[in-house]
Specification:
2 copies of one chain form a homodimer. By secondary structure, the first copy, chain A, is α/β, with parallel strands linked by helices. The first copy, chain A, has 20 helices and 15 strands. Chain A starts with 5 loop residues before the first strand and ends in a 10-residue tail after the last helix.
């Protein structure tokens, strides 16, 4: 076991391949359905929104997919990211557990989101795309795609969930500095947005609504604009695998192997990014690492949602996929972890969770900020509220190990910094942070809010 | 020459010694005078404000001073920092120059300031200090000291220059999250603050005023509180030498040696940190690197100030030192680079500049933000407005090299990120950024605003 604190790889260790869990998953993929016909979609349908290289990655079962050199060159601006042993946090907790975190916040956009923003912008550029649309919650994804689009000279429209747009003005200024146009969602620029505003002029918005708006703008642009999604889809999970691949090497440098790997989940991409390479080791090399996805009680799609076919967005414009869902019209409470305010969960991750290969836990906002501040006091880094969900569970695991007098090796993904979330910390510091229970009323009505699909579809 | 982009050192390369330029400087140190008697001060006088270990470092002429292990342990959370070749910026500029930057923004506090905050908190802790006071401009220093004080369990009061307090609320929230108390300066908590407010209730404040307040609180605390300064003094410059020492190794990894080393200057510490180890190589090993300090036209102490004895603060409570100064009562225009709004300059740096061993240039706010945005578009990282002064000059050097068709190796210190400065970027993006000329009226009256000191003092 190493006595080091930070485990750094060299530039040569920037991964050359993305890892595709669908090559090794024991769970067959479920079909993706057209939102109108509810029949399985074709690549042609997807090609309205995505370039063909992205679509091929979306449906690929190839185990390792080569990372294009222009993408690797940009990865080298911030990758490999550090893996850090949280020695000061261990000491503060008095735990025999060893706590490691992979720090994706060193990305110039502030989070892991750049890992997929760069290849998505690259493949679009190669396909001749001049303009993209997207949604963003807290703004981590929008910032990353804005930077990537600037790098590849692509125009970008961002639909930013209104509650975050108001909570986090600096995020908007950042996206604008990278040249993006940013609109609060629901907006009056789309039918989807207008329809939500007609029902509730004060709607805080949600990722489901913002996706509808961004999809609508691209789908009705007569080919002038494509759409880009920051989570949920297979190609996004694929691109995030660089996190776990680097972590495997770095844990090896540390001379330890994790008993548990933890990540927060909204759409599921940062968790999948760190967890899937470890899942491969479980499936193929006899390892037995627990993989724990952490979600907010305010949007508990894994722990309290239903595994069923549902729309990816609120306005029923995006494809129908089989996933853990709270219903596409569910609007989560305005927690500060805007990136986790999504009604569904990545289909691939949902299937693996359904098969018992992944576990999940839901945590409350105040407990999350307790953990965030405890972490900042010990390790210095101010975490994003999303990432702090993983910290909460990592601390809980470390305290459990302490209670059991058990050595336990914990690895979590610190997916981003919280520099743009300080109004949330101010609310916490001044005792004004809201807490949120499970949305029991919405949970009770999920079945009746799901679309009716042909039950003969193999699932 | 290496084909790499990022040059990373290992944890073992975290420096074990700070480098003290006063061991090698051909310029004799100038005396420090008591603000009341105007006679040379004694260590006993300084001991009201500082612990003895700090005072001994302040007057030391030892070449290498060992870094205590507890300080090195905390350095390991973020050091060695990366040295990055700005290949994408070079391409955007079409320059034959090679541009390297040392990135101190990976510090969890966001800038190089943590390099001295940690040892200052450590030495205070060892001396039994329970509470510290300090000033901060844009908040980089206050954030760093707040984090370091939390690590060593020391209470902290921060006097934050009012214009920055209003421009950058997230900085205050960050300091408060680390447990510090933050007051807008001038405040009504001190005689110094009250006196400034009596003259101008709308005073934007300045570092000189905030220093007066923080010094007054410590000096009148009957020993309950010590004071900590984030720049100007020898021990601060000493601690920052880790930047240059690492850079020397990393330039060696890159297989190049800089023709010019650039840093922004307010009090002078980040520039001195990167430049002094290269100055040593100039003085002792026949190297001929140009060392360029970049200051704002709004506070041009090196390029337009006078080299004379002056108070370190506005209210004449801090010692009198010989430095390049605009006069201790000079209040700079409210540029967004709050960390550069200081009337004076580090005495050691001033002496070296006076001796012709360092050069300096002043740049205007809009040109600085042009450079900052050009850098962000090419390299991703959003720089602090202070650090962007160095970028402006690095780009100017690269363009000059292009015009001359000359290969030139440029190294600059990217001392911090601009995540808390986005209201400044928003002003730039929306065409509302003010520009500021040299303060000609104030420059003309410097001589009559300086204190009269005994001219027999050897200088």
């Amino acid at each position: 076991m190493s006595d080091q604190t930070r485990f750094m790889l060299s530039e040569n260790d920037v991964p050359r391949f993305w890892y595709n869990i669908n090559a090794d998953s024991p769970v067959p993929p479920t079909p993706v359905l057209h939102p109108g016909t509810k029949e399985p979609i074709t690549p042609e349908f997807l090609s309205v929104l995505f370039p063909m290289d992205i679509i091929l990655q979306e449906i690929s079962t190839e185990r390792f997919i080569q990372i294009p050199e222009p993408v690797r060159e940009i990865y080298k601006l911030y990758r490999p990211t550090p893996l850090i042993r949280a020695r000061r946090l261990e000491l503060a907790l008095g735990t025999p557990a060893h706590i490691y975190y992979k720090y994706e916040g060193v990305s110039p956009a502030g989070s892991h989101k750049l890992n997929t923003a760069v290849p998505q912008a690259y493949y679009n550029k190669m396909a001749g795309t001049h303009a993209l649309t997207t949604e963003t919650g807290a703004g981590q994804w929008g910032s990353a795609l804005a930077m990537a689009c600037k790098f590849f000279d692509i125009a970008l429209e961002v639909y930013m969930v209104k509650v975050s747009y108001n909570q986090k003005p600096y995020r908007r200024f950042l996206m604008e500095t990278y040249g993006a146009q940013v609109f609060a969602s629901p907006s009056d620029r789309t039918h989807a947005g207008q329809s939500i505003l007609a029902q509730d002029p004060n709607s805080p918005g949600s990722l489901g609504v913002a996706i509808s708006e961004a999809v609508e703008v691209a789908a009705t642009s007569n080919g002038a604009k494509k759409y880009s999604l920051g989570s949920v889809l297979n190609h996004v999970l694929l691109h995030q695998s660089v996190i776990g691949e680097e972590s495997l090497k770095q844990m090896d440098m540390a001379g330890e192997y994790p008993d548990v790997v933890i990540g927060c989940v909204g759409g599921g991409s940062n968790f999948s990014g760190i967890a899937f390479p470890f899942l491969r080791e479980n499936l193929k090399n006899g390892k037995r690492t627990r993989l724990v996805a952490v979600e907010p009680t305010a949007a508990p799609s894994l722990t309290r949602g239903i595994y069923a076919f549902d729309y990816g967005d609120t306005a029923q414009m995006a494809p129908i996929v089989k996933m853990h869902t709270l219903g596409h019209d569910f609007i989560p409470s305005p927690i500060h972890a805007g990136g986790l305010r999504y009604h569904g969960m990545a289909p691939t991750l949902s299937a693996l969770y359904d098969a018992g290969l992944i576990s999940a836990v839901a945590v409350r906002q105040k407990a999350v900020f307790d953990a965030a501040v405890q972490f900042a006091h010990a390790e210095g880094i101010l975490p994003a509220p999303e990432s702090a969900h993983a910290i909460r569970t990592a601390i809980d695991e470390a305290l459990e190990a302490k209670a059991l007098g058990e050595k336990r090796v914990i690895l979590f993904n610190l997916s981003g910094h919280g520099h743009f979330d300080l109004s949330a910390y101010d609310a916490y510091n001044t005792g004004q942070l809201e807490d949120y229970d499970f949305p029991e009323e919405a949970i009770a009505t999920i079945p009746q809010r799901l679309p009716k699909v042909n039950m003969n579809i193999p699932a």
